[in-house]
C-alpha cells in the first residue's frame, strides 16, 4: 500500500510545475484578482517588539531582580505599536503579585538602567502613567 503523495525517506521533492500554484491554508486556490499587501506595511511593529524583547532577555534579564523582571514583562505585555505602555502602579502590583512600594522601586531601577522612560506621570484625575520601553543598552551596567 503505497501512497504517491508520500515521499520515501532520503528522496528529494520533485520540482513544481511553473503553472501550478499551491493552495492556501483555507483550501482555496489564490487568484490574481485578490488584493496584494502593500509593501512596508504590517511587519515593522511586530519586528520592533521582538527586537526589544530579545534585547531585554539577552542583555538585561540576568542582571535584574525578580520584581524588576516581572514589572518589565507586564509593561511589555501592555505595550502598544508605538512602544508605549499605559499602566497604573496599582495595576502593575496586582498583576505581578508584589506590593505597590516594590513596584515603584522596580520602576525606578528600570528607569535608572535605561530600560523605560516615563512619558506621562499618572494622577488621580489624569489617569495612569504612560511608559516607553527602551531597547537594552547591550552591556552597560
Describe the secondary structure blueprint for this structure.
Elements: H1 44-60, H2 66-77, E1 84-87, H3 89-96, H4 100-112, E2 116-120, E3 129-133
Antiparallel strand pairs: 1-3, 2-3
Helix pairs in contact: 2-3, 2-4, 3-4
Protein architecture, described:
With 141 residues, the chain is of the alpha+beta class. It has a domain of 90 residues: Arc Repressor Mutant, subunit A (Orthogonal Bundle). The protein is built from four helices and three strands; from the N terminus they run ααβααββ. Strand 2 and strand 3 form a beta hairpin. The radius of gyration is 24 Å and the shape is elongated. The N and C termini lie far apart (64 Å). The mean pLDDT is 81.
Strand-residue proportion: 5-15%
Specify Rg, calculated over alpha carbons. 24 Å
Helicity, in percent? 25-40%
How many helices?
A: 4
Distance between the termini: 64 Å
Q: Low-confidence parts, pLDDT < 50 over ≥5 residues?
A: none
- According to DSSP, the number of beta strands is 3
Largest sheet, spatial ordering of strands: 1-3-2
Biggest sheet layout: 3 strands, antiparallel
Helix-and-strand structural type:
alpha+beta
Order of helices and strands: HHEHHEE
Outline type = elongated
Name of the CATH class of one domain: Mainly Alpha
* CATH architecture title of one domain: Orthogonal Bundle
Under CATH, the topology of one domain can be stated as Arc Repressor Mutant, subunit A
Average predicted local confidence, pLDDT? 81
CATH H level, superfamily name of one domain: Winged helix-like DNA-binding domain superfamily/Winged helix DNA-binding domain
Amino acid at each position: 500500500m503505497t501512497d504517491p503523495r508520500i515521499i520515501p525517506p532520503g528522496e528529494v521533492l520533485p520540482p513544481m510545475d511553473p503553472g501550478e500554484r499551491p493552495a492556501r491554508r483555507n483550501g482555496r486556490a489564490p487568484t490574481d484578482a485578490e488584493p496584494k499587501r502593500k509593501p512596508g506595511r504590517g511587519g515593522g511593529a511586530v519586528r520592533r517588539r521582538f527586537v526589544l524583547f530579545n534585547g531585554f532577555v539577552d542583555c538585561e534579564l540576568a542582571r535584574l531582580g525578580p520584581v524588576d523582571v516581572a514589572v518589565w514583562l507586564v509593561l511589555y505585555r501592555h505595550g502598544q505599536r508605538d512602544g508605549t505602555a499605559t499602566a497604573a502602579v496599582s495595576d502593575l502590583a496586582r498583576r505581578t503579585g508584589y506590593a505597590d512600594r516594590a513596584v515603584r522601586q522596580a520602576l525606578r531601577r528600570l528607569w535608572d538602567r535605561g530600560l523605560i522612560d516615563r512619558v506621562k506621570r499618572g494622577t488621580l484625575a489624569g489617569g495612569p502613567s504612560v511608559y516607553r520601553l527602551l531597547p537594552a543598552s547591550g552591556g552597560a551596567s
